[in-house]
Write a structure and sequence with these properties.
Largest sheet: 12 strands, mixed
Structural class: alpha+beta
């Protein structure tokens, strides 16, 4: 210790001064030397601590390139392609590897991505985009209007069977020059910009493929895009003579228009089901897991951080008044609505990861002053509503009412998907309605059977189901009377000329304040008519490691949108003096 202190002092002081001090110290007694060296050590350590504190006060940790992030996903991607992506695995990888003219941000705003700028004609019918001059695909080929036109044409080709096709129905796309492209609509559509977040395909890669070759191309699993990441390596397995990816090692796309990501190694692993994914997360094989079951969230939180975001989804029991005569009575529908404890369902089914709702708009997607009325639960009020309308209980305790020459019993069935959460919710609701005095049966269906034999032909009394409304808040497909029959999504076959006008006005205006006013009026009208018992909006659940910073889920509409700000996530940092940050 003595020699170390001498070396520090000798290096810091002039030689003459050090020699003079050294001579004085040599004449100290042993006890005096001990005290001197201890005090000197304290002085040096204190100085270093003070310097470190001063450095912290005048410097900031900033994101730096580096680090490894490993996420597990349920399912195996088949179409990492913005034109064909439909599964969660497809959409997740597509979001990471492709980019569009526009991009949604975690705040919900839409900003230019591959576009440098855009204009909208006063008619609301023509959108003109100028591409960035520095927009490139990850293989180094410049992005032009030809790529944009090609992508939209492929989406519109019925032979390709793109799930994005409805978004570009009656839209004409035209190349003005290499950097300019125009979209012409037949009627104004306020949410059209959101459609232009779809990823752009490289025409030089895909352009010579026929519609039959399109879904079979190797580029569906080895894509070339313009998004934040590109494929560094792909790991595969051979299953039933089919080569399937098991893992992608993604690396930053240095040409990404909005700036290359900080995280250097972004690894995506695929699992057959949620149970194996959760096991992989708990064992440390993966660092992150999305869309986990609410019941598993508490367990996941022990290994990291659980982030949540409200989803624009509406779960409800939809009434088919055409098939069930008893549900055609408004007082019956109102009593059924009043006798459901929505908060209990959110607690028991979603483990608290959701919000109860009383109307057709997801929780939190309207300003507070425009929201529908508060969620109510009042079993005695429900009974009173029926009694006042002339209903009475029979010997079995079931409500009944004379209609003409016949007696109508409050008896009906609930159809739902055979998934644990929906079945559990359906049985809770059925028990509550039995407590009211209704004869209720729950019928479960697998997805294909439910869609083809129940929903499409509208063969149900009541249907417990969920609607994904999306970020654009366009409720036309779900509630306009023109959408009552298949393939429309107005599954309760609700009809109201007043609501039709509100929905058409809302989707046609570019004035957001007017749109919110129309939607608030729409929600109030639907809630008053009780075509369904609105239950809850769930939350998206994302388990991530504690060392990853910069994740802002914001308001997402689909699971893949957790990656909207992925290029700003970071693990490593550099300590930089504030003066340099200000100059920068």
């Amino acid at each position: 210790m003595k020699d170390n202190i001498k070396n520090i002092l000798k290096a810091s002081w002039p030689v003459a001064a050090f020699e003079k001090l050294s001579g004085v110290v040599r004449r100290f007694s042993f006890a005096e030397k001990l005290v001197f060296y201890v005090l000197a050590a304290i002085l040096i350590v204190s100085g270093l601590v003070m310097l470190q504190a001063v450095n912290r006060s005048v410097s900031t940790d900033v994101p730096a390139a580096g680090g490894t992030f490993v996420e597990g996903i349920v399912g195996t991607p088949r179409f990492i392609n913005p034109v064909l992506a439909v599964s969660d695995a497809d959409q997740d990888l597509t979001e990471l590897i492709y980019s569009g003219l526009m991009k949604a941000t975690p705040s919900g705003a839409l900003v230019p991505d591959l576009a440098e700028s855009y204009t909208v004609a006063t008619s609301g019918l023509v959108y003109t985009f100028t591409l960035r001059n520095d927009a490139y695909f990850s293989d180094g080929v410049k992005i032009t209007a030809d790529d944009v036109v090609y992508t939209i044409n492929e989406i519109q080709d019925p032979a390709v069977k793109s799930p994005e096709r409805p978004s570009f129905y009656d839209v004409t796309v035209t190349k003005i020059d290499d950097r300019t492209v125009a979209f012409t609509l037949k009627q104004p559509y306020a949410a059209f910009l959101d459609n232009l977040t779809v990823g752009i395909l490289p025409k030089h890669v895909w352009g010579n493929m026929s519609a039959d070759e399109f879904p079979l191309s190797e580029y569906n699993v080895e894509p070339i895009g313009s998004g934040p990441y590109e494929i560094g390596a792909m790991h595969t397995t051979n299953k039933n003579m089919i080569v399937m990816p098991t893992e992608y090692d993604l690396v930053p796309n240095d040409r990404y228009a909005l700036g290359a990501p900080y995280i250097k190694d972004f690894v995506v692993k695929f699992y057959p089901d949620e149970a194996s994914l959760l096991a992989g997360y708990q064992s440390g094989s993966v660092h992150a897991a999305a869309s986990i079951d609410p019941a598993d969230a508490a367990t996941a939180a022990k290994a990291g951080t659980v982030l949540t975001s409200p989803l624009p989804r509406v779960f409800a029991v939809f009434f088919n008044q055409n098939q069930s005569s008893v549900l055609a009575f408004k007082e019956v529908r109102q009593a059924l609505s009043d006798s459901v404890d929505r908060s209990a369902i959110v607690s028991d089914v979603l483990s608290g990861y959701g919000s109860p709702i009383s109307g057709p708009i997801p929780a939190g997607f309207l300003p507070a002053e425009s929201s529908s009325s508060a969620v109510s639960y009042n079993l005695s009020e429900a009974s009173s509503t029926l009694a006042k309308a002339g209903w009475s209980r029979n010997a079995s305790g079931i409500w009944e009412k004379k209609a003409g020459k016949n007696m109508i019993d409050l008896s009906f069935t609930i159809a739902t998907l055979a998934s644990p959460d929906l079945v559990k919710a359906a049985n809770i609701i059925a028990d509550e309605w039995r407590a009211l005095g209704a004869d209720v049966t729950v019928n479960e269906y697998d997805l294909g059977d439910l869609q083809q034999n129940v929903i499409r032909p509208r063969k149900f009394d009541a249907l417990l189901y969920g609607l994904v409304t999306g970020r654009d808040m366009d409720f036309y497909a779900f509630w306009d009377s023109s959408q009552r029959n298949d393939p429309g999504l107005n599954i309760s076959m609700y009809a109201s000329s007043a609501v039709d006008k509100l929905l058409e006005d809302a989707r046609g205006t570019l004035d957001s304040a007017r749109q919110m006013k129309d939607y608030a009026a729409f929600a109030a009208d639907v809630e008053a008519d009780v075509p369904a018992v609105f239950l809850y909006s769930p939350e998206f659940i994302y388990a991530v490691p504690n060392n990853v910073k910069g994740i802002d889920l914001g308001a997402i509409t689909l699971p893949f949108e957790r990656y909207l700000g992925v290029n700003t996530w970071y693990i490593d940092t550099n300590n930089v003096w504030n003066a340099f940050l200000q100059k920068k």
